[in-house]
Amino acid sequence: MEKLLHYCWKHKMWPAEGLVTTDGRPVEVVDPGLHNHNSGPDFFNARVKIGGTLWVGNIELHDRSSDWYLHGHERDEHYNNVVLHVVGLADRDVQTQRGDFVPQAVLPVPQRVSDNYEELLKTDAYPPCYRIIPSLTPLTIHAWMAALQTERLEEKTVAIAQRAQQAGGSWEDAYFQTLARNFGFGINGDAFEEWARHIPLQAVGKHRDDLFQIEAVFMGQAGLLDPAAIPERYRQQALADSYFDKLSREYRFLAHKFTLQPMNHLLWRFMRLRPQNFPHIRLAQLANLYYERRTSLSMLLDCADVVALAEMLHTQVTPYWQTHYTFGSESARSAKHLSPSSINLIILNTCVPMLFAYGRHAHKEALCDRAFDLLEQLKAEQNHITRMWQQCGLEVHSAGDSQALIQLKRCYCDQRDCLRCRIGYEYLKRKNEK
User: Fold this and answer.
1) Which residues pair with 219 in a beta bridge?
2) Please, which residues have CB within 8 angstroms of residue 82's CB and are 6 or more apart in sequence?
């Protein structure tokens, strides 16, 4: 299996007698090279001695030599600099696009490694490596968790950078869209991000001193002022509601002034949502934050710790929404603040990745460092993923730990990508040493 060949090459699992080319020349691997996860040869800038001569170049690996031709490498100039073809079975000679013959070496996968890899793939228990976790050293666990934290933040950075690019390079807009997305708390995340793209911040900013006008734009652009968006059982009451009527008239005026087009209200989801998570309430909270100028990137950058961020995100709703969850449906009076747990989630999923992403963009390492500090300050998430790892023996002390373990499950365990996982490596290595 080619993945195992990659694994053995990367971790220098050579046979005891060493490697030799198919024509009998000894091979000494000085440096296996850098693993390439994109197109082109599998390892770049390797250093190998073949028959006593040092070669610096690329390495390509295949199950069989003939796969070289199956993949069309003989027609690809990117493979002209391959200095060694490492295979599981040498069934023919291979040539580059220039016509040069490429030295080949057979790398046998140790039987124990192969058996243990099969065990990882086929074990019903989840995660399959659970047996080894209690024996891992604290240093191994800490190093891997730190790498997973960074990996997860880098993935979120890609999404934020794309939002900035789509907004014409505006990181202010990218922050607002990221904040809005996370006000959807998963279920309505996509709808909130779509809504945020329908909010022309420069235009709305001209009316920032009027909370009523901001709420009119926010509700109108969400499509929630369309009578068709109101459940039929509440529609009659809503249409007779003076606040709904005032908002609708104000939105029509502002929509004409700024040439606004609302999003499709059918994108919003209400099934299995608690009323405090209804879009109307979250939009009213966002309107209040925007009105008080607490959705600006500059304010985020000024917050030094979790306490300051929590104060920045603390919000409430206007009097109408204190007694309503939707238009036309009254409720018991409540301030409808963001709960502390909700604020923590927004800090974790918005503020932390935004600081990291903007720090990378602006070449400000202090912001990236602050992002990691915040992860350590925040409480760990409690969900089925963190509980699973705790049952396996991994301790979860902070949000940094829980984010790392979420990344581990989704990007490694769920993909059965044990060969890229450091726990998987330790599992195979320890078994191999027995």
Assistant:
1) none
2) 41, 57, 58, 59, 60, 73, 96, 102
